[in-house]
Design brief:
alpha+beta, nine-stranded antiparallel sheet, five-stranded antiparallel sheet, 16 strands
């Protein structure tokens, strides 16, 4: 059995729908925790069946809050696969009830909150469920109406240049249909996508019509990466791939691309999906709480140093 699980860490920012409050998301959580002190207090019910509660809340000093949120459906059984004899040709999946005094875990999420910055390691509990949970808790704690009017947004306008220069670029993927690539070639030869257009034009020639711009469904992609074997010129290559990435992100040269930094952050057209994959010690269907929190704190520190968390 695997001792670690691969988990994806995401970065979100709490953004208010109506007006930005004088306080921040972390402050609302701290205020809520003073009013709702027990696990039962910090549990909400969704549709009268599924329960979401806070298994652990840890306040850092002077700022920052760590949380472990869990979901369960009281009385719900879990599916089980019975052991069979070597000669068996089929089996029936059964069910098992939870042990006395316990419920089966539906899903959970580990969070690190600094101000309006939210780092999430989720297992079956997504952004919408996390947002609903806190909105209901703030309402239950009788906090201001504005406290519930927020979204956990993917960050689209962080300082891309700082992110790229701080983390470096591992790889750039450009994608297009062959028709679009060849059509763009004559229009934007001097731009970054000229390489992709030239590739499309070359393939058109192989198929017998290099200048054909009729619609087709063939796709073409170009991956730009570093050749680590050429150690003497690696710094030059790093500078060039960083420059290409900055041009792509800032000058809107191409409509379908993914920039992958050396720490695994993904930058795509119209948004930066700030996330990374890590290995965390497995704990049943979930992962170790302290291990998840430690990875979230390392993740946030990287983002903070790169400037990605700047407003």
């Amino acid at each position: 059995m695997a001792t670690q699980k691969s988990k994806t860490l995401h970065y979100r920012r709490a953004t208010w729908i109506k007006k930005r409050p004088k306080t921040n998301f972390e402050s609302y959580i701290r205020q809520m925790s003073q009013k709702l002190t027990t696990v039962a207090d910090k549990t909400i019910t969704i549709d009268g069946e599924k329960y979401t509660g806070c298994a652990k809340l840890k306040k850092l000093n002077p700022t920052g809050v760590l949380l472990h949120i869990v979901t369960q459906t009281p009385g719900e059984s879990a599916s089980v696969v019975p052991h069979t004899a070597p000669t068996s040709v089929e089996l029936d999946v059964g069910t098992a009830t939870p042990p006395n005094g316990s419920e089966f875990l539906d899903g959970d999420a580990f969070l690190l909150v600094y101000g309006n910055d939210v780092c999430i390691c989720a297992g079956g509990l997504r952004d919408g469920g996390v947002r609903q949970y806190f909105s209901e808790l703030f309402r239950k704690a009788r906090m201001s109406d504005n406290s519930t009017q927020f979204e956990l947004m993917k960050v689209a306008n962080v300082n891309i240049v700082n992110l790229i220069n701080s983390q470096g670029v591992k790889e750039i993927d450009l994608r297009s249909t062959m028709y679009e690539a060849t059509a763009n070639y004559s229009r934007r030869k001097h731009k970054t996508d000229g390489a992709l257009g030239a590739a499309g034009r070359h393939l058109k020639a192989i198929f017998g019509s290099a200048n054909d711009t009729t619609e087709d469904s063939l796709s073409i992609s170009l991956t730009i990466g570093l050749d680590k074997r050429r150690t003497k010129s690696i710094s030059l290559g790093e500078n060039r791939i960083n420059e290409i990435a900055i041009d792509l992100a800032n000058e809107d040269l191409y409509d379908d691309y993914v920039i992958i930094t050396n720490t695994g952050q993904r930058i795509s057209h119209n948004e930066i999906a700030i996330k990374t994959n890590v290995g965390i010690k497995a704990k049943g269907k979930s992962v170790d709480r302290d291990g998840a929190w430690a990875e979230l704190m390392k993740f946030y520190l990287i983002l903070k140093r790169s400037g990605a968390t700047e407003q």
